[in-house]
Structure formats: C-alpha cells, structure tokens
Amino acid sequence: MCGLSVIPRPGTPVRFNHLPLGFLSLVILLDSKAQQTELEWISYPPNGWEEISGLDENYTPIRTYQVCQVMEPNQNNWLRTNWIEKGDAQRIFVELKFTLRDCNSLPGVVGTCKETFNLYYQETDSEVGRSLRENQYVKIDTIAADESFTQGDLGERKMKLNTEVRIIGPLSRRGFYLAFQDVGACIALVSVKVYYKKCWSIIENLATFPDTVTGSEFSSLVEVEGTCVSDAEEEADNSPKMHCSAEGEWLVPIGKCICKAGFHQKGDACEPCGRGFYKSSSQDLQCSRCPAHSFNDREGSWRCDCEDGYYRALSDPASVACTRPPSAPQNLVYNINQTTVSLEWSPPADTGGRNDVTYRVICRRCSWEPEECVPCGPNVGYSPAQSGLVDTYVTIMDLLAHANYTFEVEAVNGVSDLSRTQRLFAAVSIATGQAAPSQVSEVIKEKVQQRSIQLSWQEPQQPNGVITEYEIKYYEKVSLWYMSKSTSATVNNLKPNTAYIFQIRAFTEAGYGTYGPRLEITTKEEATGSIYCCQNPVIIIAVVAVAGTIILVFMVFGFIIGRRYALAVKFPGTKTYIDPETYEDPNRAVHQFAKELDASCIKIERVIGAGEFGEVCSGRLKLPGKRDVSVAIKTLKVGYTEKQRRDFLCEASIMGQFDHPNVVHLEGVVTRGKPVMIVIEYMENGSLDGFLRKHDGQFTVIQLVGMLRGIAAGMRYLSDMGYVHRDLAARNILVNSNLVCKVSDFGLSRVIDDDPEAVYTTTGGKIPVRWTAPEAIQYRKFTSASDVWSYGIVMWEVMSYGERPYWDMSNQDVIKAIEEGYRLPAPMDCPPGLHQLMLDCWQKDRAERPKFDQIVGILDKMIRNPNTLKTPVGTCTRPISPLLDQSTPDFTAFRSVGEWLEAIKMERYRDNFTAAGYSSLESVARMSIELGIDFFAPFLISCFCKQHFLHIYLLP
Ligand code: AMP
C-alpha cells in the first residue's frame, strides 16, 4: 500500500558537532581538505609519508601526504590519522582521493615499484598515543588506482585524481584510527574524508522524527516512531512511524498525528481555533463557527456554550444549535367512559427547536375537600404508555370510580430535563363515573360433596362501589347461575361425580364486573346403593316408561270406569340456550351450532345494508339436492382482528341454536374461506321500523296485531330457552314478504355496541335507553322481564307506524319521566286494550309484567275477537286486562284541578293550567274529551302540555 517514497531532506537543522557537507544526510568525521593547518598524522618511518602543502584544483590550499620510495626494495611506510571519534555512526564511509604514478613510466624501478597501497583501521575507545603497532591494525582493502599518471611532477595540478570509497563497520568502540601502508608506490594522498550517513530530524504528518543514524547494514531500514507536535495527538491505532534508509533518506511514512479538539492545522503545527469558533474533535479538519444560540470567548475551544435558557442534550453533537424545552401542548380535550379517560391534544406551538418532542402524562387523584392530590400510583394503566408518547393521545384506564383526577400533559424534548425553568403543561380535572367492579380472584373450593360444592373467594381489588351480591356461574354443559351476598357460597343440587366449571363476578349498583378465572371442581362420587334416577338417561327412560305405563293403566282404567279421573303430565321439552362465551374455544361453539357452508354454494347479488362488522348483502344459497333460496349474507370486513371475528361469529353461534318461525333462521356460516360470512334467511321487507314508516297508516289493526303476535311468539320461544335479548326494538325485527316478523340481531350484550340507539349510561355499558326497562338501566338487571318492557315499546312503535318512542325527549328526560311514573300514551288509533297491554309491560315491578306466554295469549284472544280492538280511543278509560293494576288516582275523584294535580305530583303546573284557562275540573274534563286525551296516565300531561302550552315543559 505504501509505496516507497523519498522524503525531501531538510535544508537547515543541524544539531551535530560536525557539519554535514556535500550530501546533507552526511555527517563528516574527518575531512583533510577542510583543515588549513598541519594535519600532524603519524608517519613511520620518518622518511616515508611526508606532509606537503599544496593547492587543489580550485587553488584552495590543501594538506596532502605523499610517499615515493620506488627505487628501494622492501618498503613499509605507514601513515596513521589522528583518532576519529565515531559518534553515533555504525557504518563509516572512507573516501580517499589520491594520485598514483605509473611504474612503467619510471625508469629503473622494475622489481621495486608498486601501484597499490593498503588501507587499515584500528578501533579504540580513546587515543592511544603516537606509537604505531602494525599488528593492531585490521586491513580494510588494498587500494589500486583506476588511473595512474605518467607525466609531470607529483605536485602537478593536472594529475589524474582517483577516488575510492570503502565502508567499515559495524564499529563497537568509541573511535578509531585509519592507517595507510605504502609498500613502494608513488602516491599523493590528496584528501581523506571520513563520514557516516544520517536521516535528519523532520516533521511529517504533524509528527516529529528525530535525527536518526542509518542502520549498520547496507540494506537495513531503521524504523522510527514519531512524536506529535504540540496540540496534536496520534490518530487512533495509527501512530506515526517512518523508516530511515541506509542512504540517510526517510522512507515509508505510516500513521499520522492530528490536531487536538480546539486546534487546527497550519503548516506543520496546530493552532488554536479563534474566538467564536470551535473544533469538537481531533477528527474534524477545520474549526467551525459556533452554532445558533451558542457562543465562546476563548481561543482553542472544543465546544461553544449555550446562551441562557438554551441547552444541549447529552446526545447532541457540538455542531447543532442549542435548543430549549417545548411549550405546553395545546387544545387538551378529554372523554370519560366510566373509569377510563381518553386525552387528546395538539402539539405545542414551540417545539424548542427540536424534533424529538414526546409527551408524558402525570395523573393525580384529588380529594374533594380539602383539595389535595396524590400521584395515581401503579394500578392505573396507560395506553399506549405514560411517557415517551409520540402521538397526541393517551387512554388512562383502571381509575377509581367516582373519583376526582387531575391530568397534566407535558411536552418534553431532549433538553427538558436539563432546564431549570418552570414546567409547562396542559391540565384537566376530571371526575370519573360509575364502574363495574373488577374481577373476583382466588376462588377456593372449601368443601366438595356429592351434590354440593362450597366455595369462597376474595373481594375484587377494585369494587368501585358497594358490592351487593356475587353471581356464581357454573356449568356442566349449560350455564347455571347462583347469587350470593357474601364472598362464599354453597351450590347445591349438583350431580355427583360430575365436573362443574365455576366463575364468579361481583355486582354493584354499577352493574356486573367481568368473570374471574374458571375453576373446575368435580363433585364427589355417589354413595353406593342410592339411586338418582333422574340424572341417568337410561334410568330416566326406565322411569318415564314405568310412569307412562302407570298413567296409561290409570287412563284406560279411568276411561273404563267412567272417566272419573283426569291426569295431566307435562314433560319438560324446551332446549336451553348455551352461552357461546362458556366455550373455551369459540370456534367450537360456531361449529356446534352453525353449519359450515361451501362458499361456492353462495352467490352474492347486491349490498342491502351495513352491519357492525361489514356489509350485509342479499344473494342466493344453493345447497346440493335442494332448491336455491334467497339469503341475506353478513360479511366480515377484511383486516379484522381475531376478537372481531369471534364477536362476529358469536351471533351465528347464538342464532344457530334457535329454530322458530318468528326468529330469523341461520342457514350457516363460511369460516373456512374469505370473507367470513353468516348466511341468514332473506327477509324481503327489511327492518320493521323502516317498513312501517314506509307504509304509514296502510295496515289494519288486525294486521298490526298479527305482527305483534309473531314477535311475541318469537320472544316466548327465546325466553323459554333462557335467552335474554337485551336489544328488542322494531329496528331489530325483520319482516319478510308475507309480513311475518322475526326477531333478529343476536349477540352477547356487547353487540349492543352496534346499535346506534345505545348510549352510555352512568351504570356503565351502552344501553338503548328508550327501549330498556328501568332496572336494566339502573343496575343492568337484564331478564326476560326486561325484554317484556322492550316488547311494550315495540308494540308502541308498531301501533304508531315507526314513531320514535318519547319523540324528541332527551334520554335523561326519558329516564326521569319513567322513574316518576310517566308512560307513553296510546298512539293514534291505538285500541285501548293494546295500550293497556303496553302499560302492563311497563310495570315498574318486573314481577308484575306479563310473561311472553301471557302476551301471546292476550294477542291471540284479540285476534280471535276483533271487537275488543274496535273500542275507540278515549272511551275505554279503565283497564280491560286483568293484568293491569293502575295505581294512578281516578281523575273524577277530585274536587279541584289543584287537588288532582297534587295527587299526581304535578302541582307545580297548576299555574300553567290556570293561565291557559283550565281552572275547574270540568273545563279540564271538557278539554280532555275535545282533544281526545285521556288524563289517567300522568305522562299525558307532559304530552298535552308540550302540544298545547308550548311555553311550558312539564318535565324539568
Ligand atoms: P344487522 O347487522 O343485523 O343490524 O343488519 C344490518 C342491516 O342489514 C339491517 O338493518 C337490515 O336492513 C339488513 N339485514 C340484516 N339481516 C337481513 C336479512 N336476514 N334479510 C334482509 N335484510 C337484512
């Protein structure tokens, strides 16, 4: 990767005793030419080498040594330099310049004249005096001339100069001597230069590399570590290094130094950043100007300080502007649903210059008097979370019922926690409503007998009111219920050796809580010998057979002996409704009660309505071997959740259990394909309310009663099965092409959610107030008797051709009016007998209401005897049904309007009557007859006043 490169030699820095000459990488240890005075080397014998002054080619005076004993044999002339201190050197270069006379050009020297000389050295740690011992010298080489000269004197200037360089080393002592041995040549030693090579100190990549002597070998590179210049630091894992070559050149730079934070590079040095500038990291090349809302007034800063009121989050890089906490969220609104509060808000006007704004909610529960608030604690749930909210909404759950809460919503960003300024938040104070109790937990089986199981349990953690009773649901195959006032109960009349599942839920004024966990308990085995024949089907058959035989014997016998005895034997035959919720696997319930249809048998034709879970279509169903029939197809919209699918199919699990001409018939379901479908018989005329409105006044009373009879029969069937509808209303009755009415819209209580009439009440849960019995509104007591109340409303809807019950009164006013005893008046042209039946259905005491069975009987009677229906409105002021127990005082029994109004608790309207000119009972009676209004139901006064005294409202 790194190619060899030669570092330019520095021109100046020389911190060595010996000045480098020529090549700047050289350190000269000896240069005979440079010396002007006598060299005073040692020459031995004295007539050998001789020091002679001369001029070089540039006429510069030089000192030379010469010898020329060519005529004498056996010459051995030594010349030794002064001691040369080697310094750091390892490899020493010896450069010799000399001239040498060609022996051939000298007459008479054959045999004695030589053309070479020998070069020696001796290492010592110090000077060793002026004696010269040959054997202490090490020979370096025999030096021969490349060129010898033939003409002229030895001192002649135009001699042919030879240059020879020899290298010695590695040397181990502090210094050395050089010696020249002449063995009979004619030589002039013009210059002797001794040097070594060195890489000179250099700054490269902001690192200083010191003077470095080259290695001892010709090929070696010396690795040198650099030192960062001041205010610079080594780059991580990349420390600076260079290599000093044998030639004294820097090669192969590796790594580097970089200027520290707060400093930037200028040439070979690091300089501090100026004021108002910063450099946060050594990695940055340049100093940068301080970002917005920050400053510094020092040189060499690695960061800038934030202005007052502005901050930098720990994770913020130094390069971003200083920011501040956001302002408070805006437009905080809330929505309470019992003990759940939803908050929504808009983002703050000022995000503080950041885009990491989130929200947090602080919940405090406050006492009323004196107002003191404490944190809500860990029992409160937040969805999606309490803090770190990215979206502008949150739902807070599991609050206490009837409690006062304050919620603060704060917008926070990355610098909120650094700010010491006051928190900015939006706040609301909210009072929660009533809520059902939380789950009953820890059900313990106290005692298990053959026919009874004794249980005890813990009160729910959040009763949310006074628990008035507990409901214990237990079932073998079908659900059974048991009510308990305390937290223990013994459930009797069970079957021996049978597994029962128990679930308990608490009840308060606010209604039922959810069921606790299932507990399975098996009753004890039957004691041997005792027979509980009615539990065993084989025994039942045997007993029935025996009983039947006896009855038959009795009947035949009685018939024979003169019909003296009449016997009536009733066997229970009605199926019982099974709550699909009791199935652990809801899919099993669907497939137990509903037929799985092949989607290819269904042809969807058009969309006819919108259900809660998806479109309702009409189409045709053609099952193999059967003729095709019109069907309504309820579809489950795509993208449903598992819960939605369960709830959707729940209706089929319920409907599939019913088989009655006045209950909408389920053909089957498609669960193994998409879309998931519920296929129902097609009801050509759609919902009853719309149908009646469309045909206002077009039917005879008998036709209307016929419809009502059908609905009552369907409801009788359902109540006999133990099914409570909870949402009986004309909109949930379907009408086919033969005007047959069928009850529809099944589902568990929550399916009421899909009823647009259903509204939240203070007792929790959504309730279609106008159709619902007071006890169901008040404490969610839904029974067949509350269905009867709803049936009365349906009667009123039918007889008024789809008029809205209680017209435009508010739900609150309706609840109040019913509580005060008011009831809907007879619709126009409604036979009083029918209105009376309605009033019966609206008895406050649910035990007083007729049963569906009785209602079917009364309607049948009316149909059989239409005269009862013909009685005109207003003439029949007294009840005709034995069921009616009207407690309203008789209008004729009073002496004055005041007394009458007082008796019916309407005295506050006395002035209205007087102002309108009705001051005597006679005038009221006259008006009553003229207007065809029957005053026996106090509620009529409200209607009357609404219509006739427009300026007053009897209902506050
Ligand atoms: P639902 O989801 O049951 O409230 O149905 C929505 C609408 O679809 C109803 O209001 C009816 O108009 C229509 N619908 C439901 N079932 C049938 C059916 N069996 N025959 C005809 N129309 C139906």
UniProtKB/TrEMBL annotation:
Keywords: ATP-binding, Cell membrane, Developmental protein, Disulfide bond, Glycoprotein, Kinase, Membrane, Neurogenesis, Nucleotide-binding, Phosphoprotein, Receptor, Repeat, Signal, Transferase, Transmembrane, Transmembrane helix, Tyrosine-protein kinase. PROSITE patterns: EPH_LBD (PS51550), FN3 (PS50853), PROTEIN_KINASE_ATP (PS00107), PROTEIN_KINASE_DOM (PS50011), PROTEIN_KINASE_TYR (PS00109), RECEPTOR_TYR_KIN_V_1 (PS00790), SAM_DOMAIN (PS50105). Residues 26-204 form the Eph LBD domain. Residues 892-930 form the SAM domain. It is a single-pass type I membrane protein. Residues 325-435, 436-526 form the Fibronectin type-III domain. Disulfide bonds join C68-C186, C103-C113. It catalyses: L-tyrosyl-[protein] + ATP = O-phospho-L-tyrosyl-[protein] + ADP + H(+). The active site is at D727. It is found in: Cell membrane. PANTHER family: EPH RECEPTOR A5, EPHRIN TYPE-A RECEPTOR 7. This is receptor protein-tyrosine kinase. The lineage of its organism: Eukaryota, Metazoa, Chordata, Craniata, Vertebrata. The gene is EPHA7.
